[in-house]
TrEMBL record:
Protein's name in the database: Peptide methionine sulfoxide reductase MsrB
Record PROSITE patterns: MSRB
Listed SUPFAM superfamilies: Mss4-like
Ranges of residues in domain MsrB: 14-136
Keywords: Metal-binding, Oxidoreductase, Zinc
InterPro entries attached to this UniProt entry: Met_Sox_Rdtase_MsrB, Met_Sox_Rdtase_MsrB_dom, Mss4-like_sf
UniProt source species: Pseudoxanthomonas gei
């Protein structure tokens, strides 16, 4: 069970979260788009900390689970907490894939594939536009003003 409040934002909270998004952020986060390979801001990030949902601030992946997959998108072998991501069967573009979304706000994150490294064998392939980054020791973003576990990032 997560120490974070996973209650979805109500309509007014969601509107406040969505309002400042750019067109490209909206396309990726809300319309299940994909950013171009090898150009995301977090692809080569080597800092220690936690990647959070760009929209609601929920911790999604630790930097210690990040690896270079060679695919052009930030990749991780396991989530911060399995309860923080939700999977959806994606049959778009004539493929069968597993989409991953934020369990709290349903923002599109990317896809998970069964070709990652040990110990999980998973490759969570994410859009940088779907993420924010909190350096180790800094406070997590709390755009929903829920407090609680939304405290300090530790990796």
């Amino acid at each position: 069970m997560s120490a974070f409040d996973l209650t979805p934002p109500d309509p007014a909270e969601r509107q406040a979260l969505v309002a400042p998004l750019t067109g490209e952020e909206r396309r990726v986060l809300l319309e299940h788009g994909t950013e171009a390979a090898f150009c995301g801001v977090f692809l080569d990030n080597k800092l220690e900390g936690v990647y959070t949902c760009r929209l609601c601030g929920l911790p999604l992946f630790r930097s210690s689970a990040k690896f270079d997959s060679g695919t052009g998108w930030p990749s991780f072998f396991q989530p911060y907490d399995q309860a923080h991501v939700r999977t959806i069967r994606d049959t778009s573009y004539g493929m069968i894939r597993t989409e991953i979304v934020c369990a709290r706000c349903d923002s599109h994150l990317g896809h998970v594939f069964p070709d990652g490294p040990p110990p999980t064998g998973e490759r969570h392939c994410l859009n940088s536009l779907s993420l924010a980054f909190t350096e180790q020791g800094a406070a997590f973003p709390d755009p929903l003003r829920r407090g609680g576990a939304e405290g300090i990032a530790a990796d």
